[in-house]
Write a structure and sequence with these properties.
- The longest helix is centred in the first third of the chain and has 25 residues, at 66-90.
- The two termini are 41 Å apart.
- With 409 residues, the chain is of the alpha/beta class.
- α1 packs across α4.
- It folds into two domains: 3-177, 3-Layer(aba) Sandwich (Carbamate kinase), CATH 3.40.1160; 258-402, VC0802-like.
- It is built from twelve helices and 18 strands.
């Protein structure tokens, strides 16, 4: 008998009628002969509402009261799991709900951003053996000191895939409000199409580059333990998108998809001394301050001075600006320039590198639209470009068209 893990997000269980619809889907899967474990998120905007309540009694609950905040936020999933268990039983199928601690999801001790260390799941297996559907609260676990912890953003996705790995599930179905992974955000690119199958690495690159369908942590676990993940709609029938290991000829495109994220900024440190020392000093100082750097580029001038360009999130710009400004003075540089209001676009596809003309096609398309590129970086499966945020949608659309992602390439 196959074991299927299903995960339902907050929108999918946003009210009693939606919970009943999910229950009917789960009951149908069980009647088809599968063992079923369901991971559920908090209903609708419950987590945001609980966080807002915390902020009304504390100026900074995440920093000052992280333990209590975890206890508070974990309540949202507990409500959803209990209601769903009731609804499934009303469908004539035995079901039992577990918190993260009852399911033995063991995490480290970092409150509001814990990472899963182990899943014992003895009780989950026992209840499955009795023929019951098991519902597990997503987003939460318990530390080895028996403290309730939450997993941070994307925690329910992470819970579901980690459970699938620990239980040896045939696959993990992520039910959400879209019908799968698309070649671009359909709200920005009307011709975006659903991708039938995608490689773990490509999905991870899309997720880290702004695609909101799957959280990167969940994809990483899926790739490590080779858990097939299917992204499906909660509201309509369809096969969705299968995330799995690459097969010969699978989605054999120059570019598999596009993702974008606004809120980036570029800093340019001009006239630094040559050599690796200054660059190392800049990057080390930023790292020590907790400032994450995305793209880095350097260029040597004929006079022997060096220009260093790096990009950061806009939220980190004030601190990065102050640090880089001080470092330019310390190193005897010529000045600091910045450009905010940028968006990062990523072209993702295992078939890109080693194919002549990929860069040319991208830049020609952007040039035709009058879109300037302010930074560029590459990996084995992606090309990332920085453009003005005002041009984000236009850049997505023209690149989508240039690479034929709406149809044949």
């Amino acid at each position: 008998m196959a074991l299927i893990v299903q995960k339902y997000g907050g929108t999918s269980v946003g009210g009693p009628e939606r919970i009943r619809r999910v229950a009917a889907r789960v009951a149908e899967e069980r009647r088809r002969g599968s063992d079923v474990v369901v991971v559920v998120s908090a209903m609708g905007d419950t987590t945001d509402e609980l966080l807002a309540l915390a902020c009304q009694v504390s100026e900074d609950p995440r920093r000052r009261h992280s333990r209590e905040l975890d206890l508070l936020l974990s309540a949202g999933e507990r409500v959803a799991m209990a209601l769903l268990a009731m609804a499934i039983r009303e469908c004539g199928v035995e079901a039992l709900s577990f918190t993260g601690s009852q399911a033995a999801i063991i995490t480290d001790g970092v409150h509001t951003g814990a990472r899963i260390e182990e899943i014992r799941a003895t009780r989950v297996r026992e209840e499955l053996a009795r023929g019951r559907v098991v519902i597990v609260a997503g987003f939460q676990g318990v530390s080895r000191d028996r403290e309730v912890t939450t997993l941070g953003r994307g925690g329910s996705d992470t819970t579901a895939v980690a459970l699938a790995a620990a239980l040896g599930a045939a696959r993990c179905d992520i039910f959400t409000d879209v019908d799968g992974v698309h070649t671009a955000d359909p709200r920005r690119v009307p011709r975006a199409r659903r991708i039938e199958r995608i490689d773990y690495a490509e999905m991870l690159e899309l997720a880290t580059s702004g695609a909101k369908v799957m959280h990167p942590r969940a994809v990483e676990i899926g790739a490590r333990y080779r858990v097939p993940i299917r992204v499906r709609s909660s509201f309509e029938e369809g096969e969705g998108t299968l995330i799995t290991a690459r097969e010969a000829g699978m989605e054999d495109l120059v570019v598999t998809g596009l993702a974008s994220e606004s809120g980036h900024a570029r800093l340019t440190l001009r006239g630094l001394p040559s050599g690796m020392g200054p660059m190392s000093r800049v990057l080390s100082r930023l790292a020590a301050a907790g400032v994450s750097v995305d793209m880095v580029a350097q260029a040597d001038r004929p006079d022997g001075r060096r220009q260093l360009q790096l990009t950061v999130k806009e939220e980190a710009l004030p601190e990065a600006r102050a640090l880089c400004g001080a470092l330019v003075e310390e190193l005897g540089g010529e000045g600091l320039e910045e450009r905010a209001g940028l968006a990062r676009l990523a072209l993702v596809g295992s078939g890109m590198h080693g194919r002549p003309g990929v860069y040319a096609r991208a830049f020609e398309a952007l040039l035709r639209e009058g879109i300037e590129v302010y930074a560029l970086s590459t990996s084995s499966i992606s090309i990332a470009l920085l453009v003005d945020a005002a041009n984000e949608t236009a850049a997505l659309q023209c690149l989508h068209e240039a690479f034929g992602l709406g149809g044949e390439q």
